[in-house]
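Hi X.,

You mentioned you wanted examples for the new student's onboarding notes, showing what a folding record looks like when two proteins sit in one file. Here is a clean example. The first protein comes first, with its sequence line followed by its structure tokens.
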Amino acid sequence: MLLDSAEKKNAATDVPVHPLLSARWSSRAFDPAHELGDDQLTALLEAARWAPSASNTQPWRFAVARRGTAEHGAVLGTLAGGNQVWARDASALVVVAARTTGTDGAAQPWAVYDAGQAVAHLSVQAQAEGLAVHQMGGFDRDGLTSVLPGDVTPLVVVAVGLRDEPTRLAESLAERETAARVRLPLDALLLTVQA
């Protein structure tokens, strides 16, 4: 069942964290009949809009391509073949890009980091809305750049939609969909400051 699969994916954290975070995971199984409502889409983008950014530069930009539109086809066509197989069923593909230079031409060195924070906000809002997201770096950068305005750098494509049964996927993807989530232990991530 879908609920059982989702419950099995809850993160086994060392200490309790907010359920929106522990239950969030990157699904590949999307309901191909689900339509993303305007209010839900606006809530996702609004959450991203309120992410923090260096000097309040707000360098993130979003291009939304809903399933069934020409824009969706254009974005889907830039994805790596393995991503196209399952991402086509997502309700929308959201291209996340960044303006890496300001209006004055000066470099914005934190733009990519800030855009990542915006995507994190979008992901948590999606979880709160009962939606799934899956971020993809596997895309043709030049191809995606060619369908966007010239002043942005595409960073990631985010599939958004309603989670569906993993049995809809090819066997290899279904296995990944139902596998336990793993992370490095926290102590493996901690650095020591040299004083």
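Then the second protein repeats the pattern, sequence line and then tokens:
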Amino acid sequence: MEKESTTILPQASIEGKVPVIEIKGLFKTFGENNHVLKGVSLSLNKGEDLVILGRSGSGKSITIKCIVGLVLPDKGEIKVFSQNVLDLATHQLNEVRIRIGFLFQNSALYDSMTVKQNLAFTLKRHASNLTYQEVEKQIEEVLASVGLAEAINKMPSELSGGMRKRIALARTLILKPEIILYDEPTTGLDTITSREISELILEIKKKNKTSSIIITHDMACAKLTADRIMILKDGVIHAEGSYQELEASEDQWVRSFFL
């Protein structure tokens, strides 16, 4: 039976907001019985940082992978910039993808390439008309924006976990995305580095006017970055609100995230 979403708190006011992502009734099953998404509906407003919380296996990462077509849902509607991405031809979907940055949990850098080569490879794939000087300039600028200009000729193996995450962010930013999807941006990092990455997410939003969905288990990251929080449970959005509203929820399961 399809399970309906249960909202513990009233939906955060979105009056006057412009949604850049709208998801309605998203379902995804793996195999015969692994029903991961059971009718997820959510929206991301322009200029907003939306944090999605949930236990491991609750479908958080699957949800954002569906947005960019890395996973195909069984049922539902996904609108990005008012276009239903599930109905787009491949070339149309690629045009939408260029406007969306995706920060993978493991950073996903090419280990055989230097930092500079990683960034140049991404840039040239989508902007082949740039001159060598223009590519160099954009690489230098984006590395400076994440505080790692000195790492330009290093190999990924020479970088700490926090540095790899920053380089992965630089690679995302070099295409100047309007939306960024962060998949566990602070996982595996120490407390200080995690806070630095969370602060960098805020800086990126302020400087580049991005809209973001942040998947995380890190409550410090959620508290610092979230304009709004949604919590997934049993394949649906179970609760929604600000950090403070959810922390004070009468629902024990919701409050357990904040202990």
